[in-house]
Design goal:
262 residues; mainly alpha; Lysozyme; 2 domains
Length: 262
């Protein structure tokens, strides 16, 4: 039981830090929109990974070609292991030497067009290898960034799905924990005030409505970042109330229950 409580406490702390880390706003994307962002990010991650793979292959190939062509331009001095086995050295005319691109075997994993470009002037230089290394580093960095982006979106999506489930089932305690930690409000006091106001029922009330019994005009006031949400939305009321209490609005808005709860 202690382990379960500790695990829940750690999870709620992470949710409080990650869900609403910015100042009070109601601009969290919908779950469907976040799923769309995640799909797009995954597509871009795969493209970046493929570019990184090609860049790494280009770098490895450039290093092989540099080793094969860094000796003089005379084909006779080339390492036999790097020569195209389909060529018969006896057929080569010394007076009209073949270009190195025709003599050297292009590494299997390397883009032939890149190999031809590097061999166009007859030799692959150390500077050209360095340029391919820089390209590989850039591509790898971009792939890692998109990988991290996907992971962040996945965590955020799981968080929103969990919050939506709690809100749908009326499980207010974990939501109060998140909002209380975010705004520095006593979660026990926030829970007590909710119970005093509505008994934990989001649909109760005629003049005053919802978990914390807001008057509609108060709920729709410009102070409330969640005023466009339904007044019966429990998660919206919990966040709005924690935010209001953090701004010192407790005694003025809940004159009867605030002193009893806090």
């Amino acid at each position: 039981m202690r382990l379960r409580k500790l695990t829940l406490a750690i999870a709620l702390t992470a949710l409080a830090a990650g869900t609403l880390a910015a100042p009070a706003v109601a601009g969290d994307p919908s779950i469907s929109k976040l799923k769309q962002q995640l799909r797009q990010a995954k597509q871009l991650r795969e493209r970046a990974r493929e570019r990184a793979r090609l860049a790494a292959a280009g770098l490895a190939g450039a290093r092989e070609l540099h080793a094969a062509t860094s000796v003089a331009g005379d084909p006779a001095t080339l390492d036999p292991a790097t020569l195209d086995p389909t060529l018969d050295p006896a057929t080569l005319d010394p007076a009209t030497p073949e270009p190195l691109s025709a003599l050297v075997v292009t590494p299997v994993s390397m883009d032939p067009a890149l190999a031809a470009l590097l061999l166009a002037d007859g030799v692959v230089t150390a500077d050209e290898v360095a340029a391919q290394q820089a390209r590989s580093v850039r591509a790898g960095t971009l792939a890692r960034r998109w990988t991290l982006k996907v992971r962040r979106l996945q965590r955020r999506l799981r968080t929103l799905q969990r919050i939506a489930a709690w809100n749908r089932r009326g499980q207010w305690k974990p939501l109060i924990e998140i909002a209380g930690k975010k705004y520095g409000v006593s979660t026990a006091g926030l829970h007590r005030m909710m119970m005093l106001e509505s008994g934990g029922s989001r649909t109760i009330g005629s003049t005053y409505k919802g978990l914390f019994q807001y008057y509609p005009s108060t709920w729709s006031g410009s102070w409330n970042p969640w005023r466009r949400e339904s007044i019966y939305n429990g998660w919206a009321q919990i966040r709005a109330t924690a935010y209001a209490l953090s701004r010192g609005m407790g005694r003025s808005q809940w004159p009867n229950t605030y002193p009893m709860a806090f």
